[in-house]
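Deliverable D4.2, example record:
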Amino acid sequence: MPQIKRKVMGLLAGSACFVVAASAPAFAETTLEKIKRTGEVTVGTEAAYPPFEFVRDGKIVGYGPDILAEVVKEFGVKKLNQLDLPWQGILPGVLAGKFDFVATTVGINPERAKRYAYTMPIADGVSYAMKRKGDKLSKPEDLNGKVVGTQLASSTEPVARALDAKLKAAGGSGFKELKLFTAFPESYVALANGEVDAVIQPLPSLAALVKDKPDVFELLAPTPQDGGFTYLSWVTRPDDKDLRDAISAVIRKMRDDGRLSALQKKWFGFEMKIPDDGYLPPGAM
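Output generated by the structure prediction step:
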């Protein structure tokens, strides 16, 4: 009898282990597996960066949202939650697990490449300076003694700081001041009303703005960008490389079948080359 009890207890224990084991994969699934299982995805976006991502008639629109629509369609997602957050909360937010991935434009640089998993680029974001229409500035050296603006914690903040240092190293005075704004549209207003003399930002957005307001703004010159990493991407958490690769596969497919070029013409008025490799710094994940 005791032997029978032990066998029964053993079977019960085995069954309990089976139940635990059967439920274990639900806790071990990746973010990509969760998205495909639930048919729902939540992304973080700063909708204040036209024409990449911005709000029109109460809806987030732009180049990025058009790409995102294709990604969620390829993933079979039924419900998209797109959070509109301040830029300064975007990258910390994805690491904290507040949303599944960043679907807003993130400039590639060596520091970020060590902390985030970049997708394939969605645009070429070489840095440029923009001035008021008619101002007598024609080259980066003309920014000596001028007030320059860019976005706080953006990919162009280190570019602006590096240019300031180069101007001083070359014997100039450097910027009179570097003003950092919460969002790029604030810097456009400051440029238009004379608060700053130039704004540094990736070229695609500036080109679209100059095309939209040719009587107010004018491109000045490309700004030196050490390292040559000029592309703009989305990012995932470091442990979500399968999600990163799945998003990249959709972007690559869109590039190859012409959908990406069509969206670039729609939102920027020109096409950009998107490479398969060479866009990440050494040591990137």
